[in-house]
Amino acid sequence: MTSKSHYPIILTCLLPWTSSKAxxxxxxxxxxxxxxxxxxxxxxxxxGKIDLTDESTFRFQLLNDAITGSSPTGVLPGGDQPxxxxxxxxxxxxxxxxxxxxxxxxxxxxxxxxxxSDYFSNGISxxxxxxxxxxxxxxxxxxxxxxxxxxxxxxxDEKKDSYDIFAGVxxxxxxxxxxxxxxxxxxxxxxxxxxxxxxxRNEDFVIAPGISVPIVNIYRENRPDxxxxxxxxxETKHYFESLKGTLKAAFRLSNDDYGIFSQTxxxxxxxxxxxxxxxxPFYRFYNQNSADFFVKSLNQLNIDTPADKPNGxxxxxxxxxxxxxxxxxxxxxxxxxxxxxxxxxxxxxxxxAMEGIxxxxxxxxxxxTANTFSITAQIKF
Length: 381
Known about the structure:
By secondary structure, the chain is mostly beta strands. 2% of the residues lie in helices and 64% in strands.
């Protein structure tokens, strides 16, 4: 097989624009808006990459998110209990990574930390890559650990640990085609509930013997205290010389012991208009069945009074629409303009729509429709 060093020009169309410059810095702004006073997120980030030596590179990212709006609580609409609740929070995060390369091998250590008013996360990951077959084949291995603390309203702080193991391979099939596949195994344990999601139940409030009135009570959701996930991802990129464009097709299958099996398909076209302009329309489709313990209300379960502090033991239940049977579509456009050798500006728009399907779905009002706008400036020197 021909070495990839024989055709670097075409491969730059299969990968993001790169530069031999030692330093890269990037500022980005993103707005995610579901409209109708639902969730709105404004995100700002600043990241950079610095070549320390010929073998070592340092990169970092600073992140600030401002979240406002309201989100479904899990109760059914039209009743006395609120269907949505207001929220407001700010997340700050920092990431730092050090990569060391020697010949055909690369190893990277990454540390991360993020804080919200009710959520604290510390992470560490280790990634390793090695090239084979004159650089045409790359094998990647990785491990990631997250140590999270959740502040639960009116209860004690709760702990959550997450572990991910990653293995993947990238193969250059020819001067115009690159394929890759990877498998991720993830395990989480501890407090896996959303502290703001509840489930309702119709009950009778006894006033006196033989006299009662119907009421609707709400209880905290109770998800299992562990989750094992398996994710398979495959991606193919092919460059069409006559059109000066690249087609990317990606597929993702995910399964977990919640009982959720999901499928994602994405297609993107990257069109070179000239040496400076890159236009990329894309479309994504996502589908999943509901979790085994998804319920619309606790009326469906024959249980005693639910615990005030759910601990993950059965029976499990959640009315979170994100665990229901649903599908979602995204359509959008990315534009990257290379002002000069040192400065690039990019922007993107994405329209996202989610919809429940079948009998194991939440009320239609729960599913969001959102628009996302982003703009990024990158400088290299």
